Amino acid sequence: MLVVANQKGGVGKTTTAINLGTALAAIGEPTLVIDIDPQGNASTGLGLDRQDRTITTYEVLTGQAVLADAIVPTRIPGLSLVPATVDLSGAELELAEMPRRNFILKDALENYSVHGASAGAGATNQKSGNHFSYVLIDCPPSLTLLTLNAMAAADAVLVPLQCEFFALEGLSQLMKTIELVRAKLNPGLEMQGIVLTMFDKRNKLSDQVADDVRATLGEKVYATVIPRNVRISEAPSHGVPALVYDLRCPGSQAYIKLAGELIQRERTRVAA
Ligand SMILES: Nc1ncnc2c1ncn2[C@@H]1O[C@H](COP(=O)(O)OP(=O)(O)O)[C@@H](O)[C@H]1O
Ligand SMILES: [Mg+2]
Questions:
Q1: Ligand 1 atom 10: the closest Cα is on which residue?
Q2: 236 lines ligand 1 (CB under 6 A)
Q3: Domain of 132?
Q4: Global pTM?
Q5: How many domains does the chain have?
């Protein structure tokens, strides 16, 4: 279970959750995307209209529904979604009142695993989330209670990092938060990796930022770099992942490569 996090908005979290999820599903790894951003961009980008989001992350976090009832299939075989709506912005206040406020999502996922296992629903997963190989949690651009819930529940953090000047500064703040979560909420939380996004090969700064990030974080940075590609930004308005909108475009191809690299990395990480 991975949380896709970066407190900066517009760095490619949602795009990564959608397209990495699609690529993993296409490779044959059943994947669940959990949208915990009140903006609901992952839900929109996966083609689920607002009126069809009846049971959402909000109902799950406020105890009005169990996770199993919130999971819907997407048009992509093997890819499921727990959608979000703007209702979720209200959940933050409601959660703040609860004694286990940081662990609501974790509890929901654990209950789901129990249900799944007792129902014999193809429990092939080594981690939580039973019949899904991967669970990707798409976070809001903040380090508030919703993101903390995701970090408390997850095994590791996947960080999309936009190749721009302040990238490293933002990253050090995120690292501090991860340290804090390890100390207080989830000692096992790992840094899964950093994905450089919106890389522009005509821009010298992109290269320089990529070099700096690799020099600082070494192996944690994925070899695969996601290029800036207009086809990626067009896809959400059609309600499909870029991989469905234009499989051959460089952005889609990069996400397929990333999925391959991630599967390799997860095998070693989980075995370690
Ligand atoms: N590689 C890319 N090339 C071009 N546009 C991109 C790329 N990745 C993301 N975008 C666009 O940038 C905007 C922000 O991306 P998004 O994934 O929504 O970021 P976040 O979830 O971190 O806020 C969106 O309009 C998205 O379509
Ligand atoms: Mg987003």
A1: 233
A2: yes
A3: 2-271
A4: 0.94
A5: 1
